[in-house]
Each structure stands twice: as C-alpha cells, then as structure tokens.
Design a protein that fits this description.
Largest sheet: 7 strands, antiparallel
Helix content: 25-40%
Strand content: 15-25%
Strand order of the largest sheet: 15-12-14-13-17-18-16
Structural class: alpha+beta
Length: 473
C-alpha cells in the first residue's frame, strides 16, 4: 500500500480529535539534522502530551496511510529523524512527554517518559542516590526515547552496556495505534518474544516508545580519571587488560585518542586546556569507579607504574580533583565539536573486534592515502568496546567541498575494510537513512529478510518512519 500525504483534510480531521495546539506548522529546527546531509519535510508537527494522544495520532495515520516520523532531541547522526522526500508525513515530537513518573531506588529502577532529556534522567537518578550510566556528548539535548530507539552507546558501554542493556520495560504505541503496556520492572520475565528488544534499536520503524523503565546502578564511592600516553593501539589494549586485571569491572570507560584529534582541538578550540605540552601520537582516557574502601587515584597510580614498567606508557596525568576530572573529560567530549568545525569528508561510526584494532587502524590509513595522500584521519573512540570513530578530513588549507566528489569512495573504502575485518559499519549511531544502502550491502541476507518480514507484519501500511533502517521495502 503506497503512502499518502498528510493533506489539509487529514490534518483538519486529526486536529478535531486532539487538544488545541497539538498540531503545529513545522519550525526549521525539526527539518534539519546535525551533519546537514538531509533536509526534511513534514505537513505538520504533532506534540502529544501523553500516550493516549500518541495512540490517537498513530491510529489516524494508520487508517489514512500517512507516514509518521518520530522525533526526539534531533541529535541523531544518520538521518533517522528527517524524511527528505516522498508524501509529506506527520512529524511526531515527544518533547512534551518528559516526566519522571517514578523512582524505585531499592530496586535500582527509574521510570521516565520518552521526551525526558538524558541529562535530566541522570539528575533524577542522582537525586535518589543512584547512577544512570548512559552518557554521551549530546546528553544535554538527546531524549531517552531516541536513545532507546537508536540503542545509543556512549562512553560507559564497557562497564554498563548500551541503552538496550539499561532498559527493563517499555510503554509504546504500535503502528496500528495499539498501546503496549510493557513498563515492567522485572529482571526476569521469560514469556515469549521480547517486544522490548525488538523496539529498542528499531529507530521508530516498528512503533513509538513513550516511556521506559530504566536500570540504575550504585554511584561509585571512589571515582578516578587519568590520561596516559601510549605507544600505540596495541599498547592500549594491553593497558586495558592490566586495568581490568587490577580492578575488574571498576573500569567504567577507556577512550582512545589520536594526535590528530588533539591538533584539531588546538586549532579550533585553543582555549581548551590540554594536558600535554607536546601532542602524543596516542593517548587513552581512563575512568575508574570503585567501591567503598578502595582508592581510585591510588589504583590509577599503580596502573601507570605498571604501564611504564611494561613499556606501554611514558607520561600521564591523574586528576586530583573533580575540576581536573571534568577538565580531562572535556577534552574528549569536545573532539566531535572540533571535528565539526574542521568539516569531515566522511565520518564512520564503526566497530571491529578489539584484538584486530591495531591492524585495522593502519590498514585504513594506507587505503585512504592511496586514494588521496593529503587527507587526514582522526581516529578516536571507545576502545574498550571496539567502537571507533574513524573520520576522514581534508588536508590542511583545504575544505570539505574540495573533496565532496570523493565522499562516496572514502566511505566505501572504510566500510569494505570494516567488513573484511569482521566488524560493523554502525556501532552506536544506528542506520537511519544514511546507512540503509550499507546495511543492504553488508547485512546478512537472512537477517534482512527477517527484518522485512517483521516490518511488514507489524506495520503493513509502512507508515512508521518510512525509508529508514530496513532496505528493500
């Protein structure tokens, strides 16, 4: 069944079924995405206040065969929140649904509506003496529904897992307008198909998440942060092994940073304080979170001594205060902003088996140098879970526009190499619209067939985020 536009007759009929001011003319901000690759369109923006209003909108769209584009904080990097062409859809924003419905600190659970900003969920957890560990650069604007819809990762996946691992239950509206009341706080519920995990990571193609029961954790009694220079990525993996042997699951984050990223920071954000006078070729940012009776700073000092003795590192800085800790994290968190100011030709959110990272990084350098020697690569990311941001930039004095004709080839080179190494072309950002062709090229045929079957069964009119995620529809 082909989609139809959300024409004035449809909008008038829908508006009559909803409270005043639920439908609005779309502002420009709803039709843009951070990388500027897509310009969206929508006949109207719907701003429901609760799950019943979401269901009313979806039921009307299902009956009229009108597309619905889910919109959270607008921070997605693969175009999942914008629809550039096709019949004009309704854009569904969850921004009014931002309540923290309940907290259960004894159970380590918090229930938040989909429109709650990630930073607000973190703050609500802190208020009851707990930690919600999902953390990423856009946490001040990203909304928890979008984090779950894309199965967001971030810096703490090494210890706490992706968004999927932090969710116990969901409330959601399915493509027919039915409400799934699945806000379970249970850790064990072995009752057939797991609809929760089907919706998480589906990017709104199978329904709209409206609320979630989220896992909390104890706040570490002794946090510690350090940045160490390292010989190379192989040394970083050895260092991670040393750290985990010493403190086990106390390693919360382990971030790999290349000299190019530090140089971009110096060029675009010169007021940002850097810990080393001379930019090292490689360094790692380490976060420990230890329990009572343990000293994270002491553990980091011991780790640095072991790293020096093993020839893995020759310099480092261990934060001595909360201000110093935040300063070190600010360095890592501003790398994406520096990248944006430089302007990448092609950015790649990839993962490869951790043990193969030392082979992959130089193989990528060599392949890009064969294409165009002047190009620069900023390789950084979450080494502890194998997720690299492997981004290609113009040479000094050149601009992205000078190499726009190479963007597709650059992407193909890197993604072919990722596939060769047994990795994934989307580690934490999702598929959206940007990577649908990549999923078609590199995805397992049986998996893709199953995805299409599930999509057709749950969303027979194809109204939910049409054009996103699932290839071959």
């Amino acid at each position: 069944m082909s989609l139809k536009p959300a024409d004035p007759a449809f909008l008038d009929a829908l508006s009559a079924r909803l409270p005043a001011d639920t439908l609005r003319t779309p502002e420009t901000r709803y039709l843009e995405e951070p990388r500027g690759r897509y310009k969206g369109q929508a006949a109207a923006v719907a701003l429901p206040r609760n799950v019943d209003e979401v269901a009313e909108i979806i039921r009307a769209a299902h009956a009229a065969h009108v597309g619905v584009i889910p919109y959270g904080g607008g921070t997605g990097l693969v175009g999942g929140q914008v629809m550039p062409d096709g019949p004009a859809p309704i854009l569904m924003s969850t921004e009014r649904m931002r309540q923290i419905r309940a907290s259960y600190p004894a159970e380590n659970v918090i229930i938040a509506e989909a429109g709650a900003v990630l930073a607000d969920v973190q703050a609500a957890a802190t208020e009851v003496g707990r930690l919600f560990p999902l953390s990423l650069a856009a946490e001040g604007t990203a909304r928890i529904g979008g984090n779950l819809a894309t199965n967001a990762g971030g810096v703490n996946v090494l210890r706490y897992g992706n968004a999927r691992d932090l969710c116990l239950g969901l409330e959601a509206v399915l493509p027919t307008g039915e409400i799934w009341h699945g806000l379970s706080r249970l850790r064990k519920d072995n009752t057939g198909y797991d609809l929760r995990n089907l919706l998480i990571g589906a990017e709104g193609t199978l329904g709209i998440i409206t609320a979630a029961a989220l896992k909390l954790s104890p706040i570490p009694a002794s946090p510690g942060t350090a940045i160490f220079t390292i010989r190379d990525p192989a040394a970083a993996i050895e260092l991670l092994s040393l750290a985990r042997d010493a403190v086990g699951e106390g390693v919360s984050a382990f971030e790999l940073i290349h000299r190019q990223g530090l140089e971009f920071l110096a060029e675009t954000l010169p007021d940002l304080r850097q810990p080393f006078e001379t930019h090292p070729e490689w360094c790692v940012l380490i976060e420990l979170g230890l329990g009572k009776g343990q000293d994270a700073e002491e553990a980091l000092a011991d780790l640095f001594g072991a790293a020096m003795e093993a020839g893995l590192s020759d310099d480092g800085v261990i934060a001595q205060s909360e201000a110093q800790r935040l300063s070190l994290w600010s360095l890592r968190e501003h790398i994406p902003e520096a990248n944006r100011r430089i302007g990448s030709i092609s950015s790649h959110d990839i993962s490869v088996p951790i043990s193969r990272i030392p082979e992959f990084i130089p193989a990528g350098w060599a392949a890009i140098a064969d294409l165009e020697p002047s190009l620069r690569i900023n390789c950084f990311g979450h080494l502890g879970d194998g997720n690299l941001h492997y981004n290609v930039f113009p040479g000094a004095g050149e601009t992205r526009a000078d190499f726009e004709h190479l963007r597709g080839e650059v992407k193909r080179i890197i993604h072919d190499l990722v596939f060769e190494f047994g990795g994934s072309v989307s580690a934490e950002h999702g598929i959206g619209r940007l990577k649908v062709s990549d999923l078609d090229r590199y995805g397992d045929p049986s998996k893709l067939a199953a995805m299409r079957a599930i999509k057709n069964a749950l969303d027979p009119h194809g109204i939910m985020n049409p054009g996103a995620v699932v290839p071959g529809l």
